[in-house]
Amino acid sequence: MSWGKLLQPDLVLGDSVLSLTLEIIKKNQIQGLVLDVDETLVSIRDSDTSPELSLWVEEIKTVASLWLVSNNLSQYRIGRIAEALSIPYIAGAGKPSRRKLKKAVDAMNLPVEKVAMVGDRLFTDVLAGNRLGMFTILVEPISNNGLEFSNYKVRSFEVWVSQVLGASLNMTNHS
To answer: Which of 30, 72, 152, 167 has the most CB atoms at less than 10 Å from its CB?
Structure first.
């Protein structure tokens, strides 16, 4: 598979994870979501979830199984976020490695193609999900100001490289 295809998300939301609706999940026949944590669900500086995120998670749980899979090594921080949302989790995933993603998908007891990898990074979240055969959804980072600015520059570079390699990151029509 070409690098362009490996870096090509199945869906580009162009907004935060909160814009991933029940309709989009049903339309794409998704039964499970593996969610990145840092900059996808919460700012990298936060250990607390927002009320909006908690409401979104409760709504999504009505149609899909959820797991958190984070590259962050802080078991305490990721565990605290997972506990607040009542979602099982894996920290220190080492994405784009597929191993921990496969562990989450296997725990859901769902076919891999019915599980979506949702994240804000192309070279970790999308690449890992595509390598495993998952449906991949690219969302905008929760915040890109202050300390996150360097992460925003890295993401911009990833977007540029992905486009050079042939990935199209135009917002997907998901109405």
So the answer is: 30
In 3D space, the residue among 111, 127, 7, 25 whose CA is nearest the CA of residue 71 turns out to be: 127
d(CA 103, CA 93): 10
Residue environment code for 64-92, b if the CB has 16+ CB neighbours within 10 A, otherwise e: bbbbbbbbbeeeebbeebbeebebebbbe
Tokens matching residue 54 = 């908690």
What are the distances in angstroms from CA 36 to CA 8, 105, 120, 165, 175?
Answer: 17, 14, 8, 24, 24
Residue 29, classified by CB atoms within 10 Å of its CB into exposed (0-12), middle (13-18) or buried (19+), is: exposed
CA torsion 53-56-60-66 (nearest 10°) is 0
Q: Which residue has the tokens 């749980």?
A: 61
129: nearest Cα among 112, 108, 147, 152 = 112
What is the tens place of the pLDDT at every residue in 49-90? Answer: 999 999 999 999 999 999 999 999 999 999 999 999 999 999
pTM of the model: 0.86
Question: 């199984």: which residue's tokens?
Answer: 65
For 129-162, what is each residue's pLDDT tens digit?
Answer: 999 999 999 999 986 444 444 455 666 766 766 6
